[in-house]
Amino acid sequence: MPKIQVYLLGLATLIxxxxxxxxxxxxxxxxxxxxxxxxxxxxxxxxxxxxxFGVAFAFLALFLFRSPYFKKEFIxxxxxxxxxxxxxxxRFFLAFCAGFGEEILFRACLQHWMGxxxxxxxxxxxxxxxxxxxxxxxxYGLCLVPFILGLGWAYEKIGLWFSIxxxxxxxxxxxxxxxxxxxxxEINEDIPWESHIPE
Length: 199
Description:
Elements: H1 3-28, H2 33-36, H3 46-66, H4 68-71, H5 75-83, H6 88-114, H7 116-126, H8 135-157, H9 160-190
Helix pairs in contact: 1-6, 3-8, 3-9, 5-9, 6-7, 6-9, 7-8, 8-9
């Protein structure tokens, strides 16, 4: 995927999703969007919990990605991420775009009207993980639902920034680890099969 396309998708999420949320707030006037969006709490101690929560679920996702049952199902996603050739800034930027944009729209807007459970299931389904025709993908989606429910619960009890940082950390870990997995796979595939035979 060309880098310009990657950045356009990131900016669309970063700017477009909050714009939709703001539009809904202006339309219905009862959304807590502006009330929940507090810059002063963006870097307080609670946000460390959000980062750790995101990292923990990211490693659970990686465990599933690497298992034989799920590995084949996610090969296209892993190779797509690897093909982006993301540098450190790219990874941080895209992870923040997803965390910031999607959490504002889904947590601070849609969850207000749809409720915690429906919003969480809809979030996972929109990302394509609840496809009943693909069993492994569907099971992964079910495993992801508790994480998204956790983001929704934390949004209500702790605040929007906890959910943003947890989402950011989850995506950031996946960007780094999936790329590393693909690099290791490419190295192993370059080794002649004879070298795997014990002497």
